[in-house]
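Chapter summary example.
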Amino acid sequence: MNLTIDQKAREVLDNLASNPRLNHFIDCQLPIPQTYRGTDPIKLIILGQDPTVKNVKSRATITTVLNLDKPGNIYNYLSRICNRLDFDLENIYASNYLKNFFKDPPTQITEIDVFKEFAPYWFPLLREELAQFPQVPIIILGEPLLSAIVCGGASPCVRDYWGYKPDWKSGEKSTYCCLEPDKNILGHVVFPFPHQPSIGKQFYAERFGGYVAFVKQQLNVGV
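The structure predicted for these 223 residues follows.
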């Protein structure tokens, strides 16, 4: 029987649950959120870090990756991006790099390097997911995830792709850019975006329209 991505994810979670080194970092009481796949041709992949949120009670309400099954802050954020790209969430495939819930947000786990320890379990499945959509560009959310996928000396800072310069408040800025396939382990063109809460920061708020316009231009020329 051919298993779906979601079924394979549950098998990976079972393997992690039996790992005595890693299982006490996992919230095994919660099922893995389902991947999101729009009903129209997929034009863009959105990749999150993991489904864990700080509020423990809120975790149980997360049944689909990035909460794309219901309106909310992240739904509105991603819809806003898609609308400016002249399509909608029905043209999106969304998944998480690390698919299990953690007992604490990974940035608060100091005993281990979460990406280093958990990626060997999850990355082969992610690679299988991405193989369904060859050459489809990816938006990744957040700097920890960016740091985990860069290679070849590429910057691990989201702001560097958004034209950051030390004197940006004085109007100085560099050009917008993306992460080329040979500079990341995903093998696709990647556009780094900040997590939804950070988009309200002055630097990103001022450059949001410009960066999305850059993404649109790159999509239109078939990057």
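To summarize the output: The chain is about 35% helix and 10% strand.
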